[in-house]
């Protein structure tokens, strides 16, 4: 066992982990260590070679590798330590991490821990697509890594299921590589990725988008031969007789992302059943004291810019905890996602002040009002335009001390 | 033309068990397998249950081989190192009426000498299985689980290190009976053997029909399964079965806690025409979840990480009630042809006993002399199963034990290498998956495939285009991005 003592240990060296590490170091801790499973830093960013990263944050549109580079450079200047190709096997409530790499087993004692493990893609089985089990079925991100990181061509004639951003970007990417992209199939009446991606990746290349459609059958005993698509009604049930067979050798799945929290769960970090990520307070602290969470393992973000905002705070508060600059906070109130709201973060508030809420709504609406209520009393109201489950809503609200002391629930709702 | 004492058609659990049993003797043996690996048909697509023998009537071959095989597995697991867990099982009755069926099963079990059978009431069962709701249940302690693919692979690899030749991706396309044996025509050449063992599973009738007119029909009966995420492994500790579905000659949708921690739901039972139609269907997925929820009401909907199906090789149609006994016999018309027909459940449990029986049959033709240097290769421990000291020691010896490539299951690069270095020469992505479990977790290969492919290219000089998922022609890729534009 190789022993280490650090102030802040960051699990995951993707965008969230890098930003949190840089932020922790900037806020005064001496000894920050980032652990990552890959041989590179930046997580998913190096394979995202399209641009659009950092627009909000820096004003210039970068590619994924460029955005990652920006933070890697900062981290290196600050002499943050990294351990790559290192798998965290376990960590406990005393903040002792067990990790393994080619040098051996490591035990890392930390004063605070930042969880930044990211997320994984939903597979065929998360949505239970029946049929045969041929080769040629990839999640969009896996196909993206094969093309952009390894120069490997996963297919020629392609159908994409799900209109998440990765799927849309991959439609265009495969077209560039000479593949025949036969269409993107989306079960909902609207695309689940950003509008700019629908326009720039599908419309500009005449790739059809089949809204209100799903895949009902996968055919092929060795390599994929065809998929059958069908229209769905308003209850998402297949409309009989609407089936249509599309011949293809590859099916890409862009069905959404699942925060990776296997590690968090084994340590007893409480998980929000809706986000799939840890329950946190406004300081991004989880239910285990000294353990903070940020990035896509907390909730799946739309853009790296908003993700970085949260990760900066998480890194800062983790540093504060490591330097014992925080008073122990016993009381907190719950934040509840009420009508029209899918989830809201933070789920707990333990101190008054300006709090940045991030939330997702249940359904698209042109105009709506967001309400915050405590004991039936409205404390905040705001009109929102063009809201959509695909777009995260960010909102800063001042929460006065008497609400914390009231020990009541804070409910967030939305109406038309 | 290479001449063998024994040729075995089929590298499933039956063919592999026979190959291993015969590899103890001074014989030249060859196994023809049409898949890229052994266990590529139903031997990987079943419940992995070691049956006790309560379900087959006394005096049947099914009962005899099942009870014998069950006993043999106890010592085989120590000898070969494959995983086995005696979970026990409950056959549960939903109401008083169904308890009659429990009494009947108990009686059959007693006749077959199955030990420890006991009928318990619903509230007692609740104490050991709090998530299961039932009126009463038959407790069967002599039932357990193995990993069916692991068992088959261990048998085949042990046969291979004792000089049995496995020809993978090899189809038998013609057979001729000659005075002194058989001429076997395959798509990889022509071979000769003195004895021919037909362990072709669903292909058994095709093989018979190459030399004689079959006196039987096959009735393929598909069973679909759902695999649940390991996170739900605490729902049950033993297997939970409903009372058997008599009309179809099957045991019904049951809930099986696998050795790896995933729970299996299934199998369904559906007679189909095409024995190769291994599809899963939306309707059956729904039915499986519904039926499983009748047993475990708290079963989550969103826990499924995979679905698959296997095809039972039945000798009786649904009109006949679906039940027929095994046929383990030498053909009357074609001496030297040993046929293994209708080996459905409990075939996995019966495999070692059937292998012994086939060995006895062969000994009538060939004098069996034991080998002096019979080798045994125990299945190696996984990194994740080792103590920290063992892990550290291994990493010191070979750094690749320290590189985890499958994050869901914590499988290291060294284990992938070990899997790819198998004595059968099986090099598909599934061969790796079934040997070391990389790709079997909740991300279903999303993160580790790139590492496995890298190892295949760098360490085994494999061409990217030749990397298959499982079956021949199930290529993963079409080459490099730039090549494809030429």
How would you describe this structure in keywords?
heterodimer; A: alpha/beta; Immunoglobulin-like; seven-stranded mixed β-sheet; five-stranded parallel β-sheet; 27 strands; B: alpha+beta; FAD/NAD(P)-binding domain; D-Amino Acid Oxidase, Chain A, domain 2; eight-stranded mixed β-sheet; five-stranded antiparallel β-sheet; 22 strands; globular
Task: Give a short summary of the structure.
The complex is a heterodimer of chains A (416) and B (486). Chain A has helices at residues 15-26, 55-58, 64-77, 140-150, 165-176, 195-202, 262-267, 304-322, 401-406, and strands spanning 2-11, 32-35, 51-53, 62-63, 81-83, 87-91, 96-101, 104-115, 119-121, 137-139, 157-161, 180-185, 209-210, 213-219, 226-231, 244-247, 250-253, 257-259, 291-293, 333-337, 341-345, 348-349, 353-361, 365-374, 377-387, 393-399, 410-415.
How would you characterize this protein structure?
- The complex is a heterodimer of chains A (416) and B (486).
- Chain A has 416 residues and is α/β, with parallel strands linked by helices.
- Chain A is globular.
- Chain A has helices spanning 15-26, 55-58, 64-77, 140-150, 165-176, 195-202, 262-267, 304-322, 401-406, and strands at 2-11, 32-35, 51-53, 62-63, 81-83, 87-91, 96-101, 104-115, 119-121, 137-139, 157-161, 180-185, 209-210, 213-219, 226-231, 244-247, 250-253, 257-259, 291-293, 333-337, 341-345, 348-349, 353-361, 365-374, 377-387, 393-399, 410-415.
- Chain A folds into three domains: 1-121 and 257-326, FAD/NAD(P)-binding domain (3-Layer(bba) Sandwich); 123-255, FAD/NAD(P)-binding domain (3-Layer(bba) Sandwich), CATH 3.50.50; 329-416, Sandwich (Immunoglobulin-like), CATH 2.60.40.
- The mean pLDDT of chain A is 95.
- The mean pLDDT of chain B is 95.
- Chain B is globular.
- In chain B, the strands form five sheets. In chain B, strands 1, 2, 9, 10, 11, 12, 19 and 20 form an eight-stranded mixed beta sheet that branches. In chain B, strands 13, 15, 16, 17 and 18 form a five-stranded antiparallel beta sheet that branches.
- Helices cover 29% and strands 22% of the residues of chain B.
- With 486 residues, chain B is of the alpha+beta class.
- Chain B has three domains: 1-81 and 145-217 and 315-379, FAD/NAD(P)-binding domain (3-Layer(bba) Sandwich); 82-144 and 218-311, D-Amino Acid Oxidase, Chain A, domain 2, CATH 3.30.9; 383-479.
- Chain B contains twelve helices and 22 strands.
- In chain B, helix 1 (13-22) runs parallel beside helix 5 (148-161) and helix 1 packs across helix 8 (347-363).
- Chain B has helices spanning 13-22, 61-80, 96-111, 122-128, 148-161, 204-209, 282-295, 347-363, 388-397, 413-420, 429-436, 449-460, and strands spanning 2-9, 29-32, 49-50, 84-85, 89-93, 118-121, 136-140, 144-146, 165-167, 172-178, 181-186, 189-198, 219-228, 239-242, 254-257, 263-266, 270-271, 304-314, 327-330, 337-341, 404-406, 411-412.
- The interface between A and B is large, with 49 and 57 residues.
